[in-house]
Every structure is written in C-alpha cells, then in structure tokens.
Write a structure and sequence with these properties.
alpha/beta; single chain; globular; Rossmann fold
Length: 334
Amino acid sequence: MSETLLTVRGLVKHFPVSTGLFSSRQVVRAVDGVDLDVKPGEILGLVGESGSGKTTTGRSILRLIEADAGRIDFDGIEVNRLSRGQLRRFRRRMQVIFQDPSSSLNPRMTVRSLVGEPLLVHGIAHGAELKRKVGRLLEEVGLEPSAGELYPREFSGGQRQRIGIARALALRPEFIVCDEPVSSLDVSVQAQIINLLVELQRRYRMAYLFIAHDLGLVGHLCDRIAVMYLGRIVEEGSAERLRMHAVHPYTKALFSSSLPADPSKARCRTAPIPGEIPSPVDLPSGCRFHPRCPEAVPRCRTEDPQLKTVGEGHRAACHLLETGEDALRNHPVC
C-alpha cells in the first residue's frame, strides 16, 4: 500500500438548477475544486457549516454521485476510470456510514439481511456461515446476535446507527466515509457511537473521512482537519496545530463556537459568525467568506485567495497571511 491511501485533486461537482420558466439555467457549485489526502489508518475531519459541500465531497469520492471534474486515486487506482463492474468489486475497500440510519436502512429487511447483504453480493458467505458472520458483526457494534431477526423500526436511533456501522464494517474496508454519523442522535448516545467508531478504527486500522459541523468534536477525534466553506477548502492541517494556531477567520470562528472542554476557557469565546452562508448559486466575488468576515480588507472583495503553506502540513487561503498579520499566524484557539 502506498504512503497516501486516498488522493483527491480538483474535485468539482455542480448541480444545475432552473429558477423559472423563462430563466436561464444556473448551477449550484456544491464542490468547486477540492484537494484532499488521506493516509492509511488516518482520520481526516472534513468540517464546515451546512451547505459547505461536505456530504457532496464524500459521496463524489465514493462515486455514489459522479463528479464533473477532478481525479480520485485510491491506493494507486484511479477510481474515476473504473467501469461499473470494476467499481462494484472495488466497493469492498470503500464504504460509508450515513447520517440518518432511519432513512438509510431498508425497513422491509431484517437486520440480518441488511448486514449480510454485502457479504452475499460479494460472494463472501452464505447460509450458516453468513448467519455466523452477521452475528459476530452485531456483537462487534454492541448488539446481540439475536437482533438479526428483528427489523430496523424495532430499535432506537443509536441502535440503528450501530446496525449501519455493522453493515459498513462487513467487508472489512480500508476506508470509510462517516457522513455526520452522530448529528441525528441524542446527545446522550453520541459519545457512545463516537467511542465505538474510534475503537473499530484502531482495531482494524481503517482510514476515516469524518464529516461533521462541530469543529470541537473533530478537533479531538481526528488526526488532521480540512475546513470547508462554500465548496472550497479554506484551511487544513493537523488537529493539534489548528487547535493552537488556526489562521483563517472562519476556522477560528468555528472553534470559538464549539463548547470548550474546559469551562474556564469560556471567556475566550468570540462572537458567532455573522449572517448566513451565501447561496452556492450566487457566490460572492473575491474571497467567498468576505461578506461575513470581521477581518476582511478591500482586497478580499475582489481577489480569490489560494491555499498557501503556513507551517509544516498546514495550509490556509487568506489574504491577511500575505500582509504581515502576525496576529493571524500565532493566534491560539481557546
């Protein structure tokens, strides 16, 4: 296996929309030139507000939806060029855990059928062997083997998400896209599911692309973080470096809006990000964050910043980095 498991370059996905009978067709720029790298056994967090393009990025990588442009390489294999048959076989190596287990699990299928379907499709197990493997998978996620006889509606939200995790784990993949796997769950259950995902990742050395909107959670769970805003990556780096030295105003605001683990640091919280994320149909000129940025300068309104190296493994797209703003370079995040 190569040093980098997943490499994404220039990923683009636009969705055409029509605003009326006589209007011209427009596009939603959901993903607009994204680069990502994931190493074997690494957890990369992809974080941003709703509407940033995180889910579309994850689904495009898995080819659940087809990207308009860009290249996706997985362990040296160009995923974009795989035929339908090749892609089906390749899916053993890449899986997904969806946000809402209630809508991602077929209510007409028993849990045994749901979890065992990937094993059947890929010819891995049948009959008694299939039943045994499904029982073991259910035990791995904290459920009794007898749960295989029941239907998803007979379980709580947290238990249904455990079923979804067991299904994703069935083929022992090397890479899993975790698409906000706890955002639809009660707060009391979220920690249990996070702990389960971490335990499984460490046990099987899988790589995760962990999609979330809570930068505080991602900062403590992930090895590296990529911050996304309106279809672009605006900052990326190790979780530790971004916690201590985030430089993009958007990243700093996301960290500040997260509840601190240490209540004594609550005084460090700043004002929330003003306004709402603009429409991806009608993007702002220049830096896409400038209409909401408290540190914007005139240049931000006309020039689109590019990702530049800030430190080892740390990049950000902000014009203020080029104007000698030392405060941006060394501003610790509380």
